[in-house]
Design brief:
Helix content is 79%, strand content 0%. It contains 3 helices and no strands. It is mainly alpha-helical. The protein has one domain. It is elongated.
Length: 132
């Protein structure tokens, strides 16, 4: 039978730190997946617009400027999401490594990214409805 650890509180703390570290890593991976989706979707919109214009230059609903701007905005949001995820990951790893780690309320980065995506969606909807 294995001997119990000398200091069970220390073992519990270290296991909790390990679980928190793994959770922080999973969160970063979620940020990366979200970023990849935004970047891919933005690139796809831009390429789809280019292809539609090349097939039939008379398509009134497509313009090079709109598809390029729409794609660039989504790619930019994807890059911003990656940077935000990396920043949060680094900050959380530093907090976990600290012996005086205490929970502190932090800015809701995901909510800010969601608000930016809603703004992009509303702008796209406005362009579609007004036919600009």
């Amino acid at each position: 039978m294995a001997n119990p650890p000398d200091n069970p509180t220390s073992l519990a703390n270290e296991l909790a730190r390990e679980r928190n570290r793994e959770a922080v890593d999973r969160t970063l991976l979620a940020w990366i997946r979200t970023s990849l989706a935004l970047i891919s979707f933005g690139f796809g919109i831009e390429r789809l617009g280019q292809a539609a214009i090349e097939l039939d230059g008379k398509l009134a609903s497509f313009s090079v400027i709109r598809t390029r701007i729409g794609g660039a905005v989504l790619v930019t949001l994807g890059i911003a999401a990656t940077l935000a995820g990396m920043w949060e990951h680094r900050r959380m790893l530093q907090a976990i490594a600290s012996n005086e780690y205490r929970y502190a309320d932090r800015p809701p980065i995901a909510r800010y990214m969601a608000m930016a995506l809603v703004a992009v969606g509303l702008a796209a909807l406005a362009v579609i409805l007004t036919g600009l």
